[in-house]
Design a protein that fits this description.
single chain, 330 residues, mainly beta, Lipocalin, 15-stranded antiparallel beta sheet, two-stranded antiparallel ribbon, 17 strands, 9% helix
Length: 330
């Protein structure tokens, strides 16, 4: 038990000239979350369709005890009465001094809208902008684990979990590994009907390279990047980081009349994740904004896709339950 305790404590061992550890055991917080999701599909001939649902606004309370932090946010628009075609989302990020972990699970619903469509210079696609389209669904399940090299002096928790204070500006290189499973279903017949309804019969035809029903691919990713915390006056902190990942993607799928044709292959693409934050934290009260944005790319001879998704959070919190060693100093 003694060895295990030393290992666990080692994850949060810091240089106190740069980082002030958390003084409290407990916290409560109210958070507002904007959820973003955009999917772009580009055919072999250059037809491009970009879809996204309306941004969602969710609000909810959180409670924390040391490392454990849990809460729930409510969709203000639907309040649970409309499931948007079985839409499900879970995003969880865990920050310690040395190691960060991201867990995410998303299944899109039926609330996508066409945001922009390019069918060639000769076709005016403006009538399609904002048109609801429920013929596409996507899913992603994954985990990323990364190591912070300068963990003694640079604090991710100071920027994204408000559990420490960064006292001096500092940065760190980051390296990680990741695993994700992605799926995409496209009803190209419904897409053609949408073109015919809003553009006119046979004005534009869906590229045959998009004649598939389902594709699924698995990513194995090695990533690297850099993070920086800029300490500002009066308890403010500005944080930014970026990671690029080399993703080895193995995929399967089907094309109308030719199951799995053209989809059993391996490839390497670039994925990315960015984190940004602005925090006010005087150790008792904290408030701020944070954003985590991810982009996943899938490039193949028949077509390519890009999925960009993430959350923007605004929060206000209060720490209480002073730790024993800090009570002694008072």
């Amino acid at each position: 038990m003694g060895l295990l305790k030393r290992i666990i404590r080692g994850f949060d061992r810091v240089d106190t000239l740069y980082i002030e550890p958390q003084h409290y055991n407990l916290t409560m917080m109210m958070q507002t979350t904007y959820t973003l999701d955009q999917y772009t599909i580009v055919s072999q001939q250059g037809q491009e369709v970009t879809l996204s649902p309306d941004p969602k606004l969710k609000v909810g309370p959180y409670l924390g005890w040391r490392w454990f932090f849990a809460g729930y946010t409510f969709d203000l628009k639907n309040l649970g009465f409309n499931n948007n075609g079985q839409k499900r989302e879970l995003d969880l990020s865990i920050y310690s001094s040395q190691i960060g972990i991201d867990l995410f699970y998303r299944r899109t619903g039926s609330d996508y809208k066409l945001r922009s469509v390019n069918l060639g210079d000769e076709v005016d696609t403006r009538p399609l902008e904002g048109v609801p389209f429920d013929g596409v669904s996507a899913g992603i399940t994954g985990v990323n684990v990364y190591y912070i090299f300068n963990h003694g002096r640079f604090s991710y928790p100071a920027a994204f979990s408000q559990s420490t204070l960064q006292k001096r500006s500092c940065g760190s290189w980051i390296a990680g590994v990741g695993y994700t499973r992605n799926s995409l279903d496209l009803d190209y017949e419904k897409l053609q009907k949408t073109f015919d309804t809003h553009l006119g019969k046979d004005v534009a035809r869906v590229d045959t390279s998009l004649y598939f029903n389902h594709i699924q691919y698995t990513d194995y990713t090695l990533s690297g990047g850099y993070a920086w915390n800029q300490v500002l006056p009066h308890h403010w902190l500005l944080a930014a980081s970026g990671q690029l990942g080399l993703a080895y993607k193995k995929s399967t799928g089907d094309v109308e009349g030719n199951a799995q044709a053209g989809f059993n292959f391996e490839n390497v693409n670039l994925d990315a994740v960015g984190r940004f934050g602005v925090v006010y934290n005087n150790m008792r009260w904290y408030a701020g904004m944070s954003a985590i944005i991810r982009t996943n790319n899938y490039h193949k001879p028949r077509f390519r896709t890009n999925n960009t998704f993430g959350n923007i959070n605004f929060y206000l919190g209060y720490n209480f339950g002073l730790k024993g060693k800090y009570r002694k100093k008072m």
